[in-house]
Amino acid sequence: MKPDEMLSRLAPPRIGPFKQDAFGSPLHSTRNAAWLGLALGISFTVCFATGLLSHLIQHPPGWFSWPPRPAWLYRATQGVHVATGIASIPLLLAKLWTVYPSLWTWPPMRGLAHALERVSLVPLVGGALFLLFSGVGTISRWFPWGFSFPAGHYSAAWITMGGLVVHIGAKIGATRLALSRRSPEVRPEAVAAQAGLTRRGFLATVAATTTGLVAITVGQTLRPLASLGLLAPRDPRIGPQGLPVNKTAATANVVEAAMDPEYRLRVEGPENLALSLEDLRAMPARTAHLTIACVEGWSASAEWTGVPLRDVIALAGGGPSSTCRVESLQDQRRPYSSSEVSAEQLADADTLLAFELNGEALHIDHGFPVRLIGPGRPGVQQTKWVSRVVVS
Prior knowledge:
single chain, 392 residues, alpha+beta, five-stranded antiparallel β-sheet, 12 helices, elongated
């Protein structure tokens, strides 16, 4: 196929319901579309990869194990996940505006390959809009839907990426040509004659908008930018004892059980234990600087004091290769009411059954009387209101 024929696929329509000059702006150009498509492809791919990583950590298959060190790694990956998702919003809107004249080309389908390209836009554009809308809703703690967000988001991500792969395959030749020196450029005098932005000005505006939007939201994870967080959904400094809370004890329906003076931590292993809070406090304690990192993009660090989980497992007869399941006082049918601790995580001395936060007894919304906290673990796996530990 000749270069001019490849570029004509994104050219303004010459036949169809609109006049030939209906889309006369030079900003509706193949070169703009190519640059925006490249940026959007990178942001979506990074967002997908970091989201997939979070899914594997929370629902690990047999071949996957997430290490506790470096402790900051999960915090970084999920900060990047939300930041690239936010960055994709202006990139997607700019890309759609740039290429929408091509939707009116005539005939609408020029063969099987063109039909496949058109059909791939349905899961690609529809999935992208769904992912960004539901993602922004979730990090803003607004849930106007009745389905499970993790399951819906995960499924839609695979569908969207499938559409992206097909679209890249269909457009890679035209994109390469549009970005090459052989691509016919709009003459500078023609651009100057148009009112409004030049092509470079348009791309610079999109880049500035994208960078600015990320800068005023990423402060919820990247603390040096906290003062710029005008649109950051969460301030990690706000909450009981200076830390945010996603689920309160009242919401989890555990207030009465957590405040019960007869509370006992049940440990089931080769030997069964029933430990009171006083028993745990009598054991050698450890203080560690650990982070709660949420898939919603915020993270916060604090000083946690408690008993290394491995010491409790050892009392119950567990060994170096032991793993365990940590269960909450919550109804075990509720999502994230328990979490698994691998042998590698269990061996880390900073994986704690914590009873103090910043030198004070845990607030009930942070998991009183005892919570699990460990390095490199997602926030949903830092189980609060621990009631039972099952050794395996």
